[in-house]
Amino acid sequence: MALLLLFVLLISLVAADDDAFIGVNIGTDLSDMPHPTQVVALLKAQQIRHVRLFNAEPAMLTALANTGIRVTVAIPNEQVLGVGQSNSTAANWVSRNIVAHYPATNITTIAIGSEVLTTLPNAAPVLVNALKFIHSALLASNLDRQIKVSTPLSSSIILDSFPPSQAFFNRSWNPVMVPMLNFLQSTGSFLMLNIYPYYDYMQSNGVIPLDYALFKPLLPNKEAVDANTLLHYSNVFDAMVDAAYFAMAYLNFTNIPVMVTESGWPSKGGSNEPDATVDNANTYNSNLIRHVLNKTGTPKHPGIAVSTYIYELYNEDMKSGPISEKNWGLFDANGTPIYILHLTGSGLVLANDTLNQTYCTAKDGADEKMLQAALDWACGPGKVDCSPLLQGKDCYEPDNVAAHATFAFDTYYHKMGKAPGTCDFNGVAAITTTDPSHGSCRFLGSGGKNGSFVNGTAPSMNSTSTSSAACYAFTSSISSIMIIKVLIWSAFFL
Ligand SMILES: *[C@@H]1O[C@H](CO)[C@@H](O)[C@H](O)[C@H]1NC(C)=O
Ligand SMILES: *[C@@H]1O[C@H](CO)[C@@H](O)[C@H](O)[C@H]1NC(C)=O
Ligand SMILES: *[C@@H]1O[C@H](CO)[C@@H](O)[C@H](O)[C@H]1NC(C)=O
Ligand SMILES: *[C@@H]1O[C@H](CO)[C@@H](O)[C@H](O)[C@H]1NC(C)=O
Ligand SMILES: *[C@@H]1O[C@H](CO)[C@@H](O)[C@H](O)[C@H]1NC(C)=O
Ligand SMILES: *[C@@H]1O[C@H](CO)[C@@H](O)[C@H](O)[C@H]1NC(C)=O
Ligand SMILES: *[C@@H]1O[C@H](CO)[C@@H](O)[C@H](O)[C@H]1NC(C)=O
Ligand SMILES: *[C@@H]1O[C@H](CO)[C@@H](O)[C@H](O)[C@H]1NC(C)=O
Ligand SMILES: *[C@@H]1O[C@H](CO)[C@@H](O)[C@H](O)[C@H]1NC(C)=O
Ligand SMILES: CC(=O)N[C@H]1CO[C@H](CO)[C@@H](O)[C@@H]1O
């Protein structure tokens, strides 16, 4: 009986430990990158409990100390070659960047490089050595159970990803993938994968429907069916994750979980990137977060949710490339949300963004005469108070029909309790999640933008205690949890 109880206790610990989480990537390519204490204040206000950094910057790790936030740190690509060629370089890296901060800063994972195979192929031959050397250094410091080692892969190395059951890793990389998967399996780590349905959709030339990329509900006959497994896919994300499971199974690895290290959608793009919009970004990220936290899992492994880091916290204005590259963020440098996610009732992460606000605007390109007629109707029979549109009033500028109609439509829509059909106006109006307020012209329903504004109210760096070399006490219960965890994973995957 006692044994049974112990077992039940361990299982519940395992279950808690395996809860899928939503994390956020923190890129720092901003011209006015907030101070680490401001970053941490934003994370706290937004209840973000898991972050991934692209390096192991000491000031950031110090600011994250004693916050309870779980941290994935990275060895940047330019250091992978050095670490993979020398175990003493690896050992030094661990003592300088990990041992110096753990456990005050709860580092849970070390990501070796970023998409090394596809962006830095000359480091590929030493990539597995880098994983092993870093792991050995953790082992020597008794940290190998707390801190996992892996390397984020681009999903482009998975070929023939639809149907997922036929997916396989680009065979040129088998000499790296096989020992890598052996390493991940034997150390209880996970396969890190970057998944970008946005690019899959963009590159598919219309083959992938936008709704399928955005997790929007599809009619059952529109779902993609894998003819070999008869599994139904209703979104690109699940199909990619299952493709990774099948690609691993093809190499006989069936018990390595997948962790998605990057996924997101840009909120703005150039003229050749028409689907990089605020609405699409909001829809994708909101649906992704709900999907992960709901533990829906994938068709191949239902109920096994895939922890995912959203790309990314801030818009990075210094990024080169297309306009969309600078616009993947959830927030601007001030900590103001780019859009308010639709997350009501989905749990606590990004809980400030629960306003779920919608607005009614004039459709882009709508016929001016029809807009004018709808505007006249709203301000007349529709009983909207249109006085703010008068010359000299808050919403007079910009003085054009579309802007004035948007004000009238939105006011009417909110007055009617956002009831279905109240944002149509003969087809010239549409619902959006973007607050059309500008200057002193405030729209009904706006006001969420201030909620998470963070302005350096956190203590300055100098008052934050710096953790010196931390001592770590080995606890034997952790090892038994790991063993049970492995057993449970294998049971799920059989
Ligand atoms: C590094 O490798 C050498 C030779 O392969 C070995 O003797 C040494 O113990 C290793 N050092 C560490 C810290 O693993
Ligand atoms: C660090 O994170 C791990 C994994 O989520 C958790 O089990 C552990 O309790 C955390 N440690 C501290 C000190 O918060
Ligand atoms: C597979 O990887 C090799 C080596 O990077 C690359 O040259 C080749 O184009 C890839 N194959 C496909 C189909 O992407
Ligand atoms: C996978 O296992 C099967 C059965 O044991 C074996 O025939 C096959 O060669 C293995 N494939 C690889 C890639 O190791
Ligand atoms: C969560 O998952 C359940 C089934 O697993 C489903 O019925 C429900 O609609 C999902 N909720 C959301 C918000 O996706
Ligand atoms: C949030 O938005 C969804 C759809 O976008 C809607 O079904 C739901 O009723 C909204 N919830 C609230 C509290 O407004
Ligand atoms: C936002 O905050 C500023 C300063 O705290 C305040 O003046 C302004 O009225 C707020 N705006 C809204 C829409 O709540
Ligand atoms: C933000 O901080 C700056 C500098 O400390 C200050 O000048 C500014 O007024 C603050 N803004 C708000 C809205 O508190
Ligand atoms: C921290 O202290 C140093 C030296 O005492 C000072 O130069 C620096 O401005 C301080 N930084 C902050 C953020 O207060
Ligand atoms: C608008 C809103 O809900 N703001 C809240 C965001 O979260 C912080 C911390 O939890 C609260 O203090 C704010 O009131």
Automatic annotation (TrEMBL):
It is found in: Cell membrane. This is glucan endo-1,3-beta-D-glucosidase. Residues 1-16 form the signal peptide. Keywords: Cell membrane, Disulfide bond, Glycoprotein, Glycosidase, GPI-anchor, Hydrolase, Lipoprotein, Membrane, Plant defense, Signal. It catalyses: Hydrolysis of (1->3)-beta-D-glucosidic linkages in (1->3)-beta-D-glucans. It is a lipid-anchor; GPI-anchor. GO terms for molecular function: glucan endo-1,3-beta-D-glucosidase activity. Residues 358-443 form the X8 domain. InterPro entries: GH, Glyco_hydro_17, Glyco_hydro_17_plant, X8.
